[in-house]
Amino acid sequence: MKVRAVDKNHDWVFGGGLGSYKKGSEAISQCVKTALLSVKNNWFLDVTHGIAWFEYWTKNPNVLRMEREVKQAILNVDGVLSITDFDIVIDSETRKCVISVSYIDKFNAKNTVTENVG
Questions:
Q1: Residues in contact with 108: Cβ distance below 8 Å, sequence separation at least 6, in sequence order
Q2: pTM of the predicted model over 0.85
């Protein structure tokens, strides 16, 4: 697996030749991050792609449904075999949500991704 690298602002990286791409476990990790940050109805070519984040940013979010949807999005990433640890921290005052997930990829590597999705 090979994917174009993204920078800290989530923009594609250009100008580095093959250095502008990620391979192996690093590529899978980037795809997991992208899955976590994808918003349903945001991509005109497939409005079903992504996570329905706006449905969860309500006064009393359905955290169990959110957890199921997020886990499914991660397991749908090519190369992710299983999730070994999963944590959601929601701060209702600041309306921030941090998701941390550990998983095993097809290269038998254990990786952890933590993203602020709120």
A1: none
A2: yes
62-90 pLDDT, tens digit per residue, is 889 999 999 999 999 999 999 999 999 98
Q: Which pairs with CB-CB distance under 8 Å and at least 24 residues apart come from 82-90?
A: 84/110, 85/112, 88/63, 90/61, 90/63, 90/118
Which DSSP string corresponds to the chain? -EEE-B-TTSPBP-SSGGGGEEEHHHHHHHHHHHHHH-BTT--TT-TT-SB-HHHHSSSS--HHHHHHHHHHHHHTSTTEEEEEEEEEEEETTTTEEEEEEEEEETTS-EEEEEEE--
What is the tens place of the pLDDT at every residue in 29-47? 999 999 999 998 887 888 8
Phi/psi class of residue 40: alpha, beta or left (left: φ > 0; alpha: ψ in -120 to 50)?
A: beta
